[in-house]
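Students often ask why we bother encoding 3D structure as a string. The short answer is that it lets us treat folding as translation between two languages. Here is a chain of 267 residues written in the first language.
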Amino acid sequence: MTEARGSAGGNGEAHARYTPGTPCWVSLMVHGVAATQEFYGSLFGWEFRPGPQRLGPYVRALLDGREVAGIGRLPPDRHLPIAWTPYFASDYVDQTAETVRLCGGTLGVGPLDAEEAGRLAICSDPSGAVFGVWQAAAHRGTGIAGVPGTPAWHELRTLESESVAKFYETVFGYEKEPVVSADHDYLTLRLDGRPVVGIHGVGNSLPRDRGPHWLTYFEVTDMDTAVDRLVDLGGHVLKPAHDSAHGRMATVADPEGARFSLIQSGR
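And here it is in the second language, the structure alphabet:
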């Protein structure tokens, strides 16, 4: 975890264009879209707008009229983990997808057009962690950041950090900055000197039912209130709220099992 807050200005508004390699969107595919909307709408104050429908029923979550995240429906024949998936910006998604393949990753979906919104690919790294690549057109990505209810950070949970970091460095041009610690395997990946994502090697602590995966942190105003609300809405606490150098954090899951973290920044 780091102090970075993505591409947000002081007023919480995200920049119009995301630098290639920057997390620009986060999306969740579930079985029950309506119930999931109700859960996150109540938890984060999101409102919803339909579309694009290229991959099936899909809605975009809004805060103050600006797009935050997406929720779509898994096809009935796809038995995939329910998980929040970060998308990384690319100027040429086809080229990025080919680099993913050449570096030992896998293409799961695309590249394909999402109507007039943009072009996407869904990939997995050599360890199996799933992520997306987004080439913006009408939809540029998350339009607000740095305020409660928005993604604050993305972190890859994997067995060990060093080997998979080389994959992301090659695909997105990151520079790595290790955290020097005898008992903490953590790397921060940077673009233009700015931290953008983290890689946390957790070894045997990796969930057996999940494997390597990306974890999204969402900003909240008050941690205890947010956790109580989450439980009342049918969510689950996986790691109770605790203090850290970056604020108060908790790892949780929604009613369908999608893992994410909450953070109350020490700002």
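Translate back mentally: Residues 2-11 have pLDDT under 50 and may be disordered. Keep this in mind for the problem set.
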